[in-house]
Amino acid sequence: MEESPLTASLVRRCIAGDTAAWEELVREHTRRIYNICYRFTGSSSDAEDLTQEAFIKIYRSLNTFDLQKGAFTTWITAMTRNLLVDHFRRTKQERMTDSMDAPPAADEDAPNVGERIEDVKPSPDAVLASKEKQRLVHEALQKVSPDLREAVILRDIQDMDYREIAQVLKVPEGTVKSRINRGRAELARLLSRTKGQVM
Amino acid sequence: MHDQGKFGGAGGHGGGFSCVDFDLLLSDAIDGKLAGADFAAFQHHVAECAICGPMLADTQAGLSWLEVLEPAEVPANLVHNILAGTSLRDVAARSAQFEQRVDWRERATKVLERLLVPVFNVLRQPRFALNAAMAFFSVSLLLNVAGLKLSDLRLSDLRPSAIRTNATLRYYETTSRLVKYYENIRFVYELESTVRELKRATTNNQPEQNSAPKKKNDNTSQQPERRNENYSRRDEETILAADHKNQMLLFRAISPRDRFAQITKTTEGVFLTMTDKFSTRTPGRLA
Question: Which of A144, B182, B212, B256 is most buried, judging by how many CB atoms fall within 10 Å of its CB?
């Protein structure tokens, strides 16, 4: 993901104290940051709060950013990721990363995710079907272990390259590739437990 | 033969291509960047390895699932909230910097205003204003009585010696004024005139008593001074009527200027004695 000249210019103006540039920068990157937060936490309200928090943190740290050292997008993604890790630790979400094969104790007869996907019948309303499929994938993504999930999100949802992801996660590129592939495979196993395909 | 794979599976065939190599090249293979001999070895390993084959399939399936996901819609107010939040922080930071630059006098003034404004608001109420006015008039009255004029005050008057001198002068002036006042009131005037009349009336008897040699009649008890002390506590007083054993005090009055009047009854009669600070007057017989 290359840094656009416009972004670089906006960052320079921001650092110089241009309020309009900051506003433009926020508008340009809000969607991206929000999506990272949303896919990682699985909650729109949490994502909204974290996005605001991330931008406030970015705003306060803007003076410390050096354009020569790296891309602005990578920098704000790293800051967002750190925020997500903090949030994850705060909320102890790792306890919820149970296998999707095990239904909740209160609802023993409830179908697992694979069965639910299999049960999805072709709907006259393709949009609704698509929404439902997205919801299920989104829920399954929350079950993937956090280390793998963040790598998958950055690569397959945010289209970042391995080098940038390695910078964000502060791990070698080989580790990044391995995490991405394992995350994808784990997601597929979660969703395709019964060999049902909903494509 | 291949070594034991990274994921615990049996090694596959492929001319030295291991499961570790598979893991390293998997991303490139999925991204379509693998070609040539590496790609062939990779494909061969996938076909032979019981672990890596399903791994590739799962990875591709997972990627296809993820492609289903569309970017989430950003809440309508999110950008606005972010901008508002960062602007407020900016304003707060700038105001904090401004506070640091403000002179200490202005800060002190602000603090005093914060403290005093509520007090003044309370004092503006009519009842407090009336009390304040009364206090002002009382102080003004006291200053006038004491003869002090604020407009006449000079810095030199504030020296301790000057204050002491002024206070002494004011004291004597005020005292003399009060004395004049009391002397001029009707009661004192009438009393003095009565005393004068009594004195005049008793002067007729005076030559007889004075004709006696050396006032021998004036001390039968031998203790006239002691009784005088009891009456007036003034050594210079002489009470001619006090030379009888059964003397009885009938009336005594002391004026503000240490004037002393007493009426005593003895076996010889009733006597009036008048004294003041500087002189002793002869007692006169009343009855």
Answer: A144
